[in-house]
Specification:
alpha+beta; 14 strands; 428 residues; seven-stranded antiparallel beta sheet
């Protein structure tokens, strides 16, 4: 404002400001700032207040105020939601990880990364999805059992097959998540209990399906396979009886895997004082090996192509002579494999895991991943023709006289699955 303005315009300018304040800016906008503008003395101020920049400014201020109020309301709602989620998560952590939540010395390994929040959320999501899926499966399984008891119709068989596929898909997802959680979380007793409940429920479901399958009179008890979908230290099958003392043996099986590196341990037999009494293993980038009394022979097998293969191994304590057959053809032989050492009795035969102690001490890195079927053992050396008959599913093929592949001879643990299988018809 300059001193060159005469008295009349100056008074009119002040009067314009007062009028604008009194007439145009009467609304309460909270903390506001008034802007005064000089106007010609003959302009209608009431007309001016409803047009031009002042009106645009007023509209803009109103829109901004409305937007701010909406955002404030949204933020308040989000804060309330965050408080609720935080409260629920805290309760979940205190229930699932009591030792760690208390901050005690046993809650976390020294130097371990604190991933408690992520693990809690993953555990909660996994268990919630597991509960919903298992509830659905149980209901469908009860319906299946009613159908089977009623008439054993084709509709019941179709429902059973659909249920089996659903369980297989669900099982892989749940076990994968549980396995991932175990790799990242601090070990707690509560976590182990939750995992055991998962394994127990899955095993129970498969046992019930097996009971339904046994109701089909035409189904042979040896026409099945075991599937080990993941490397874990708790998924396995176990023979119900031990092996006798043997000075000669033959062992044959069907196997399918594309795991890398190494398919793992198809079977292991441990006895008191010797965990590696008889083991078949392909570990990491090493070739497949057979161990007898902790002595090793490398086998010329190539099987991790995702196709079914028939394997047979014969051995005799005299000079430790051994032979290896793949798909009915002799692939290699050797000697001095634990010569004059008989296979000891009173042991534990496990499928899918390598034992570091009698019946246990499993290591997930050595676990078998793939499918097994028709594992049989004899306390004699099979002839070349007998092995060929086994590999080609000839009706003259012998069954094992030491261990025979039947549903009643094995127990399944930890989520390993059992499915119908017929050699040669189910190949690849």
């Amino acid at each position: 404002m300059t001193g060159s303005m005469d008295g009349t315009p100056w008074k009119l300018f002040l009067l314009s400001c007062l009028l604008l304040v009194g007439t145009c800016c009467a609304q309460d906008f909270g903390q506001t700032q008034f802007i005064c503008t000089s106007v010609p003395k003959d302009m209608d101020l009431c007309t001016m207040q409803n047009s031009g920049p002042a009106e645009d400014l007023k509209t803009t201020v109103m829109q901004l105020r409305e937007t701010v109020l909406q955002q404030k309301e949204t933020i308040m709602n989000q804060k309330e939601t965050i408080r609720e989620l935080t409260s629920k998560l805290s309760r979940c952590e205190s229930q699932s990880f009591p030792a760690a939540a208390a901050g005690g010395a046993g809650g976390r390994r020294p130097g371990a990364k604190n991933t408690m929040g992520d693990v809690s959320r993953g555990t909660m999501d996994t268990l919630a999805q597991l509960g919903q899926t298992l509830q659905t499966l149980k209901q469908r399984l009860e319906n299946l059992e009613q159908y089977s008891r009623g008439n054993g119709s084709a509709q019941a068989n179709s429902l059973k097959d659909l249920l089996q596929n659903k369980i297989d898909d669900m099982e892989k997802q749940v076990l994968s998540r549980v396995n991932t959680l175990e790799e990242n979380k601090p070990g707690t007793r509560n976590d182990t209990d939750q995992r055991n409940r998962v394994e127990s429920t899955l095993t129970s479901l498969h046992h019930r399906i097996t009971d339904l399958e046994k109701g089909k009179e035409t189904r042979p008890t040896d026409k099945f396979q075991l599937t080990f979908p993941l490397r874990t230290d708790y998924m396995y099958a176990k023979a119900k009886r031990s092996l006798p003392e043997m000075y000669t043996f033959s062992v044959c099986l069907w196997i399918k895997s594309n795991a890398s590196p190494g398919v793992g341990t198809p079977f292991s037999y441990s006895v008191p004082g010797q965990a590696n009494e008889l083991v078949l293993i392909e570990w990491r980038n090493n070739p497949m090996e057979i161990l007898i009394n902790d002595k090793v022979a490398k086998l010329p097998f190539i099987i991790n192509d995702g196709k079914w293969h028939h394997l047979c191994i014969t051995w005799t304590t005299r000079d430790g002579m051994w032979e290896a057959f793949q798909d009915g053809v002799l692939r290699g032989s050797g000697e001095n494999l634990a010569p004059y050492h008989p296979i000891k009795p009173e042991g534990v035969l496990v499928l899918g895991q390598e034992q570091d102690s009698l019946g246990g001490g499993f290591d997930a890195t050595q676990a078998f991943v793939g499918e097994l079927a028709n594992l049989n053992m004899w306390n004699r050396k099979l002839s070349i023709s007998e092995i060929y008959n086994l590999a080609t599913c000839n009706s003259k093929a012998p069954a094992g006289n030491v261990f025979s592949w039947t549903e009643s001879s094995i127990e399944i643990f930890g989520g390993a699955t059992k499915w119908p299988f017929e050699p040669c018809r189910s190949l690849n």
